[in-house]
Amino acid sequence: MAPRKVTVAVITANRKDVLDECIASILKSDYPIFEFLVIDNASTDGTAEMVQEKYSSVKLIRNEKNMGLSFCHNIAMKSFTGDCVFLVDDDNEVEPDMLGKLVDYLYAPENNNVGIVVPLIMEFYDSPEKVVLAGGETSMWSGKNFLCSKKISDNEIFRDTKRVPNSTLIRRDTIEKNGLMDDSLFSTLADEDYVRRMNKKGIFAHVILKAIIYHKQKHTSTAARKLGMTNPARAYILARNRSVLIDRYAKWYQEIVYLFFWQPLFNAYYLYVLLFKTRKKEFTVAYLKGMFHAWRYVFTKKLPSLDYVLEMTKN
Q1: What is the torsion angle, in degrees rounded to the nearest 10, for the CA atoms of residue 126, residue 130, residue 135 and residue 140?
Q2: If you average pLDDT over every residue of the chain, what do you get?
């Protein structure tokens, strides 16, 4: 059987050097790459020039401003011409056989109900044998991020997952059935929202445990950065998106437990970090706005436009 036509789409923003390493790594894959896209999220560090000079086979798509991760994923999902598209962040390097293992599993006749496959994410820098993510999901009771065990037995082939961040291979027919990502979510949990929508249609996402990608994690000592609050937009998203996800997919009794017990605990802790550790007013204000919009969504099912979040990325 002829190889599947695989499109690779790398999402990048002002990380020219790691992007260069990412592209070089993927081009060493032992599975043929039909099409290679780079979605540049308004970089100003010479990213576009580097891609054009070093990788003539790569198609560069540039945003005039930072549009968020989900928006860039949607660009790739609308633009690719292959049978499937591998969405990957720029801060990764891959094993040469990773793509082949993902494609073989995704298109195996017995896996017709699988629409997304993702590789096992390993640590790149400190401990290359350390598992970073082997699947997971958000608890519909508490909003906590429940991660699958990082201990993997030799006979394990895959794990079901609802979290597919960082690197994701999606079949074309899955996109046709499930549509695009909700770009109003901007980034965090947009991947899980997409998978849970898939699940309602009887389509599933699996982690392929023998397909390996190495993630270049940033290590930080600040409390806010450890929680993912690297800018006001991220603080706003973290305050809002967990509640949106639970409102969309939890049972009514699960949502009540979350809203009146777990959500206040999360907010109290995050606000403590922002007020007494980070001490940046713009972060705190953004988080409070996210709290308000989370509650407003519960009653109205409406989110602010993407432009509302984009304004926060300028701070």
Answers
A1: -70
A2: 93
User: Is residue 1, in this structure, part of any structural domain at all?
Assistant: no
C-alpha 106/C-alpha 117 separation (Å) is 6
If DSSP codes are grouped into helix, strand and coil, which group holds residue 272? helix
Model confidence, pTM: 0.94
On whether the CB atoms of residues 203 and 175 are closer than 8 A, the answer is: no
310 pLDDT band (50/70/90 cuts)? confident
Q: Which residues contact 6 (CB under 8 A, 6 or more apart)?
A: 31, 32, 33, 34, 35, 82, 83, 84, 85, 86, 99, 103, 169
Q: Tell me the per-residue pLDDT of 144-166, one tens digit each, with 9 for 90 and over.
A: 999 999 999 889 999 999 999 99
Do 153 and 299 lie in one domain? The reply is no
Last residue of a domain, which of 183, 215, 247? 215
Answer yes or no: do 229 and 174 share one domain. no
Give the C-alpha separation, 223 to 208, whole Å: 32
Do 238 and 136 fall within a single domain?
no
Burial code (b: 16+ CB inside 10 Å, e: under 16) for 246-275 equals bbebbeeebbebbbeebbeebbeebeebbe
Give residue 230's domain range.
223-312
Residues 236 and 258 placed together within one structural domain of the fold: yes
User: Do 252 and 192 fall into the same domain?
Assistant: no
Which stretch of DSSP H or E encloses residue 153? none
Same domain as 26, residue 174:
yes
What local confidence, expressed as pLDDT, does residue 135 receive? Answer: 96
Per residue in 80-121, pLDDT (tens digit) is 999 999 999 999 999 999 999 999 999 999 999 999 999 999
